[in-house]
Specification:
The chain contains 14 helices and five strands. It is mainly alpha-helical. α2 packs parallel to α6 and α6 packs antiparallel against α7. It has a three-stranded antiparallel β-sheet, covered by helices on one side. Strands 4-5 form a two-stranded antiparallel sheet. It is elongated and about 100 Å long. It has two domains: 213 residues, no CATH class; 151 residues, no CATH class.
Length: 391
């Protein structure tokens, strides 16, 4: 066991030295630290947001959002969602793209397989080196962000270090795909380009999923609003019909049940709202198979967007999330019924709240479990190819 551990450690160190020899490795690490440090230049007071001594022309001040919530927002939206999940990931993929192709290149693989170590362990060791780079990058960024949150935001939040495992897992989805392409093509550039193309495909699927969820939730809000309005309208119309009936015939009791025609005559809005509800029900029935089908499709794919979004659940409190939601969600009024046509206008806040609740209801098991299962299958294919192919 000690011999195997020493062999694996030696291979890991060799692969790390090869990776660290590239300038882009150090450039990306330095940039991650600088991006987190830039947050310290941003502040907020009673008048507005500031960058160093400059005031930003945004109608947001400390009464709208606390400094702690502001820095958490910057950490998540700019640092994680834009820098680490996009720019730094692309740089990381470029930096690590050659790890597997260089392993299977002529001359290198011969010396490697001659050592008393299994091919599977050799491949997984090289694979772990790429994940180490992602961990170092996110660790540096999270450490600086932790200090900025503490000194500038007034809140020491160890939860920011959850970014390390979450972003590394996110990166591993893409890196496993690139490792497979690297084995198949034995070339760095094709492996990188094919991985970026796959990532773009996942991005399109995620955006389509979010759009369909919004459409579906909008339709459900229309149905719910229409049914509530019909219930209130029928209750009021019933009282009106009973009073009229009792004025004409004193024997009519309070439990008299008017017909639909009598209710519609008493409240002409009812048939209009019923028509709106029925249209919304038909629309919901048409949309549901698409949302369910896309959900099933995503179940077998890596959930890149949802994995990064997990940080939002752990870092922001409900009060801070509501502050941010109120600032950045345009308010066009609540969901209501047009009194002339019976159509329903869905409010932005109601729609966004329903869509966010729907997306966040997806379990950790679905997000991480199925994504890691996808990665495990890809790695199993890689190990099979690596152990069986005569390089």
């Amino acid at each position: 066991m000690n011999v195997a551990l020493r062999q694996t450690t030696a291979l890991f160190i060799d692969a790390y030295r090869e990776l660290a020899a590239g300038k882009l490795f150090w450039i990306t690490l330095v940039l991650s630290g600088l991006v987190a440090g830039v947050f310290a230049m941003i502040g907020i007071d009673e008048e507005s947001m500031t960058v160093l001594w400059f005031r930003l022309p945004f109608p947001v001040d400390s009464s709208d959002i606390s400094p702690g919530a502001l820095y958490k927002l910057l950490f998540f939206q700019l640092g994680i969602s834009i820098w680490l999940a996009w720019i730094a990931t692309i740089l990381g993929l470029i930096t690590t793209a050659g790890i597997i192709p260089s392993l299977v290149s002529s001359g290198v693989i011969d010396s490697m397989v001659a050592k008393p170590i299994s091919r599977t362990r050799l491949f997984l060791t090289r694979y772990a080196t790429g994940l180490l780079f992602a961990a170092l990058q996110v660790g540096l960024f999270s450490g600086v962000a932790f200090l900025v949150l503490g000194f500038r935001g007034g809140e020491w939040l160890p939860a920011v270090f959850l970014a390390i495992p979450i972003v590394v897992v996110f990166f591993s989805y893409l890196f496993s795909i690139m490792a497979l392409f690297g084995l198949i093509t034995k070339s760095t550039i094709p492996a990188l380009l094919l991985t970026l193309l796959d990532w773009f495909g996942l991005f399109i699927v995620n955006r389509l999923d979010e759009s369909l969820v919004q459409i579906h939730e909008s339709t459900k809000l229309r149905i719910q609003t229409a049914e509530e309005r019909i219930e209130r309208g029928e209750a009021n119309a019933t009282q009106m019909v009973i009073r009229v009936k009792q004025s004409e015939d004193p024997t009519v009791t309070d439990d008299y049940e008017p017909t639909t025609e009598e209710l519609d005559a008493a409240n002409p809005m009812l048939p209009l709202v019923r028509r709106t509800r029925d249209d919304a029900i038909r629309s919901e029935a048409q949309i549901r198979p698409w949302t369910d089908g896309l959900f099933i499709t995503k179940s077998v794919l890596p959930k890149t967007t949802e994995t990064i979004a997990l940080l939002d659940r752990f870092i922001l409190s409900e009060e801070e999330a509501n502050q941010i939601f109120d600032i950045f969600t345009p308010d066009n009024g609540g969901t209501d019924v047009d009194e002339e046509t019976g159509s329903i206008r869905v409010g932005n806040e109601d729609l966004q709240e329903a869509a966010i609740e729907r997306l966040q209801s997806r379990s950790l098991l679905w997000i991480l479990g199925t994504s890691l299962a996808f990665e495990a299958v890809i790695l199993a294919i890689c190990c099979f190819i690596f152990t069986r192919r005569d390089f």
